[in-house]
Specification:
10 helices, 3 domains, 308 residues, Enolase_N, 3-stranded antiparallel beta sheet, alpha+beta, Enolase-like, domain 1, two-stranded antiparallel sheet, 15% strand
């Protein structure tokens, strides 16, 4: 029994010595003796919080929401291990309006030409909760570059299937996409403009621009990247733009220069849209008022005054 107690005592001494608990505790106790804080345990918690392990991502959750315009959106929540407990650190939303006419979240090609918003959200949630969450498990929360690289590798793998399939259908697509050439027959003469000076010809409506091809899963990847960035900023107790600035400076190797420079934010502006009364046979009159805030105001003051 004595030997067992001695062994446990030695193991405990070695454990606390490896983690340098005794020197750190002695240091903060000496400081508190002269500081005499009102909240002793709060001061201890604040001191040891700086030695806490960096949080790691445990899981991601996603669900369907509506954005500010009422369009279908996606919400992503980031959970990380903070002080040995899973904690919700951020919740971010992103609109999926531009995804409604595309097929971005498919591991395999589907021949259906139309897809509903519910199917897009369901596939996005599936990719975030299952695939992306598994890849980001136990990844450091503040290593934004590593997170983005993992997301980039994943979307490249998804896009590869689409690229291979498009090569097989390249010939068929070219046949349908060719523009018809004018016939070699005689051209009809345009009618004389005499006597029709008062008639103004209708202005042709320009055709819509072709939609840009979107990477499969790009919205889910963008949402997760922003959500992780906000989660790290929340843990570090700093604004998201400041954490993003620091992350970009570390990647570019200009961290020391950015610390000395002053952060400047763009001036807040707001656009007010108002529609007139409908007139039979006429278009509704729409007014657009663009208001710019005073450069001396803060962002909160600008939004409050402009909203009034």
């Amino acid at each position: 029994m004595t030997e067992t107690y001695a062994e446990l005592r030695q193991k405990a001494a070695n454990y606390y010595a490896e983690n340098e608990v005794a020197p750190k505790l002695e240091d903060i106790l000496n400081k508190m003796f002269f500081e005499k804080p009102n909240d002793i345990y709060g001061r201890l918690a604040e001191f040891f919080e700086g030695f806490a392990a960096t949080p790691t991502i445990t899981s991601l959750s996603a669900k369907k929401v509506l954005d500010g315009c009422g369009s279908t959106g996606l919400q992503c929540s980031v959970y990380a291990t903070v002080k040995n407990h899973p904690t919700l650190l951020s919740t971010t939303e992103m609109s999926l309006e531009k995804e409604l006419t595309m097929l971005p979240f498919q591991q395999q090609f589907i021949s259906d030409s139309q897809i509903t918003s519910d199917e897009i959200v369901e596939r996005s949630c599936t990719h975030i909760v299952e695939t992306i969450s598994e890849k980001l498990n136990n990844v450091s929360l503040i290593q934004q570059e590593e997170v983005d690289q993992i997301l980039k590798d994943w979307i490249n793998d998804v896009e590869y299937d689409k690229f291979v399939f498009s090569n097989h259908l390249g010939d068929d697509d070219d046949d349908h996409s060719r523009t018809p050439t004018p016939s070699s027959g005689k051209k009809k003469k345009a009618p004389s403009a005499k006597g029709k000076a008062g008639k103004v010809p209708d202005k042709p409506v320009p055709p819509k621009e072709a939609m840009e091809n979107r990477l499969k899963g790009c919205s889910a990847v963008s949402l997760v990247s922003v959500a992780v960035l906000k989660a790290a900023a929340s843990f570090l107790r700093k604004p998201a733009f400041e954490h993003l600035r620091h992350t970009m400076s570390v990647v570019s190797g200009t961290a020391q220069e950015c610390e000395k420079s002053v952060i400047s934010m763009p001036t807040t502006a707001i656009t007010v849209m108002s529609g007139g009364k409908a007139t039979p046979g006429k278009l509704n009159l729409v007014k657009s008022v663009f208001a710019i805030a005073n450069p001396g105001w803060t962002v909160s003051e600008s939004m409050t005054n402009l909203s009034k």
